Amino acid sequence: MSRRLFGTDGVRGILNESIDPVMAMKLSMSVCTVIGEGSNILLGRDVRLGGEILELAVATGLLNSGCRPYIAGLTPTPALQLYISRSGGFEAGLMITASHNPPEYNGIKLIMNDGIEAPREVEEEVEEVFFDEKYKKVSWNKASTSTRSVSGVNEFYVNEVVRLVDAEKIRRKGLKVVIDAANSVGSLTLPEIVRRLGGKPIVINGNLDPFMSGREPEPTVDSLKEASSVVRELRADVGVGVDGDADRAVVIDEKGTVQWGDRTAVVIAPFLREKHPELPPRVYTGISSSSFIEPLLKKHGISVVWLKVGSPIIARALKNEGGLLGFEENGGIMYPVHQPVRDSGAALALMMELLAMTNKNASELYSIYPRTFMVKTKVPRGNLDLSKLYMELEQRFEHGQYIRVDGLKIVMDDTWVLIRPSGTEPVIRIMVESLSKEKAEETLKMVKSIIEKVSKN
Asked: Rounded to whole angstroms, how far apart are CA atoms 324 and 336?
């Protein structure tokens, strides 16, 4: 049996196949054993089927190992994270969600008392207890069946987000905002944030639906087609699409164009440098973000720190080293003045503030980014010798700049390519972005031929 339990952001699987109540109970017992008996642990969940079942199992495991579970109920992940870090009453939190995965999936994220997901070393401690079944069990005379409810987590979150921005300036603008809430917990906070900022929220997929039947939970160009149409047809100023636990926010400009998170960072970061001159002028992102962002940010004196893929890695670097922003191309925006984790509410509030301050359309703001063409694919990893593959690629693209923090990224003047082993599947992921469609396709073909050549040797 594999000793790895946690993926890039929590434990996930199909309900009652790879994750079930027994496993969830043992996991929460392991968490309590590591965090410590007597710890207060806050639980939240998204709308998925099985969430209540897993919530009960997690609470039972915590009680059985001597921790005190507090139940926040339906709430976005960033709301739970903010409450944990600001209230001062919790040693950790567990969010029951599978984030952007399809509705048949569920999962559990472990959040530390600073509001950030657990670092890998803590996950490894939990995994050791879990697989060796070394979890603590309280004696019969210390057993408790009491859980406590915590109300006001979502209200606290909305209030804190609204305080981040110049609310009066935004209210005078009267922005019309389309929100695609993915039939989950984003509908509990995002419309209220827009209302508090004097905007008119237009919500689609806003009903809480455990089947998430409105669209796939991952916000992509395809899944946000309806939202894009609504933005255009109703002449909204901006739109936003979130995932199942509402930590990721993908912006849609007034023309209905879906804008990825790295492009949003290019728009927001220079604004934050003016807003917060006291912060170090740098941003943090995973290696899968576009390399075209670097020269655009450099014009504003902002440097880019490239990191391994994974929002907890970016969040911890942002917290420990300081900066303006952390982000992912998938829509994760991390604003450290608020909290250094992915936060759709903060991202939306900042975008509304930027629109109000600049008096520009969203498409105008995003027009600084060049028109590019991206292709993505994956190939079976098999017994591929990665070091040999990277050497072959470097020889072929000898005039490129190499970034080796996670796989190999090769940056050229008009094109970049990323080749990295997946952390969740036995595949090699390939991403290519170029100013030319033909160059993108040609580069992908060349990389695949090199992989095939190395595989045969």
From this structure: 7
Active site residue: 30, 39, 85, 99, which one? 99
pLDDT band at 1 (very low <50, low <70, confident <90, very high): very low
CA 233/CA 255 separation, integer angstroms? 9
3-state helix, strand, coil in the chain (%, to 5): 40, 25, 35
Q: Which helix (H) or strand (E) holds 388?
A: helix 386-396
pTM listed for this prediction: 0.95
Averaged pLDDT, 311-334 = 97
- Give yes or no: 99 in active site: yes
- Name the CATH architecture for the domain at 373-456: 2-Layer Sandwich (3.30)
First-to-final CA distance of the chain: 31
pLDDT in tens, 339-381: 999 999 999 999 999 999 999 999 999 999 999 999 999 999 9
Bridge pairing between strands 427-434 and 373-380: antiparallel
> How much is the pLDDT for 424?
66
Residues 103, 49: Cα–Cα separation, whole Å: 8
Residue 326 and residue 218 in contact, taking contact as beta carbons nearer than 8 Å: no
Domains 11-151 and 156-366 share a fold: yes
